[in-house]
Amino acid sequence: GMPSAPAPVLAPRRPTRKIKVGKVFVGGDAPISVQSMCTTPTTDINATLQQIAELTASGCDIVRVACPSQDDADALPAIARKSQIPVIADIHFQPKYVFAAIDAGCAAVRVNPGNIRKFDDQVKQIAQAAKDAGVSIRIGVNAGSLDKRIMDKYGKATPEALVESAVWEASLFEEHGFHDFKISVKHNDPVIMVAAYEMLSERGDWPLHLGVTEAGPAFQGTIKSATAFGALLSKGIGDTIRVSLSAPPVEEVKVGNQILQSLNLKPRKLEIVSCPSCGRAQVDVYKLADEVTAGLEGLTVPLRVAVMGCVVNGPGEAREADLGVASGNGKGQIFVKGEVVRTVPESQIVETLIDEAMRIAEEMGEP
Ligand code: SF4
User: Which of 283, 308, 327, 329 gets mutated to test ligand 1 (max ligand atoms within 8 A of its CB)?
Assistant: First the structure.
């Protein structure tokens, strides 16, 4: 058939330098990647690899693990070697773990040179070791851990304070000729966070890692992240994203991917077009939509499935979708590519939709 036009996006991507996080590129024209962080103790290699496998299966591109002790550092080689996706070691303060992570084969290290400098100034050696190994760095500026000098100047973590801190941290690497890093300026308030990233994006071409920190439990955290990332991504700002939720990391990855898909920054996969229901509904739309969503979870082809409560908008929406149902009178009219293919009793709507979806998905090349 005709090649389809690329899906429209809200703004061209802001040009940034491209860096490498293992096999994943971040910045430039590289697709916006989705990250998460393991909640397992890094020392528990099997549990961590198991969680990484789950994250990989749910569409995570890059994973971070904490490295607060020597035992964690000792676990890094096995994790880096066996992970299917690039592993970033998250390190505060101790330069020795940065070197250990680089030697371990980690794709990148999250470390702030400002912290390193306070203890034992090995920023130059870190820059050299990272460059020699082809390892990149994330400078992670966080509202909760701003440098005292900057807190004294601004009084609190304003966008200006976050940006000044980030630009200063960046200069600590740049003065050694090291440029393979991305930056985050996280805050738990989406308004401050968005302002900080906008300001930072004006100051240089560093690839940016978006995050609302401590965004909260799943519901609040999803909305805070979606609104903040949406505001930035719709202006072309953001090269890699991490949704932070007080919930299992697989949920973070699902939310991150859904945000990118919603903005056409990643190809859409399964999309359920379901109506909110109203007084006209002749079927339990919530239940139907939930059951169809659950039954089709994990499909990788871009299938649009319409689940509509009545025949007012039902046939119209169902026609626009690959597959759909419009319910009424205890029955469901099943549409495929806009044609009614059959009418089934209400009790068979879910299984019929799932059967049809699987058949169409297979035709579309679902593995
Ligand atoms: Fe209401 Fe029907 Fe529209 Fe659903 S499709 S919201 S039931 S009018």
Answer: 308
